[in-house]
Amino acid sequence: MIGRKKETDELITLYQSSKAELVAVYGRRRVGKTYLIDQVFKGKFAFRHAGLSAVEMKNMSGGSPLRKQLKHFYHSLLMQGMKKSRCPADWLDAFLLLEQFLESRDTGERMLVFLDELPWLDTQRSGFITAFEGFWNNWGCHRDNLMVVVCGSATTWILDSLINNQGGLYDRVTYEIKLSPFSLSECEQFFKSEAIKLSRYDIVCAYMAVGGIPYYLQYFKRGLSLPQNVDRLFFLKNAKLKNEYSRLFGSIFNRPEMMKDIVEALSERNVGFTRNEISRKTGYTAGGTLTDALNALIASDFVIKYHPFGLNKREWYYKLIDPFCLFHIKFASSGDALNGSFWSQNNTSSRITIWRGFAFENVCFNHIEQMKSALGISGISTTQSAWSRKADDEEGTQIDLIIDRADNVVNMCELKFYSNDFKVEKKYYRVLLSRQELLGGIISPKKVIHQTLVTTFGLQYNEYSGIFDHVITMDDLFK
Question: Which helix (H) or strand (E) holds 402?
Answer without folding.
Answer: strand 398-405
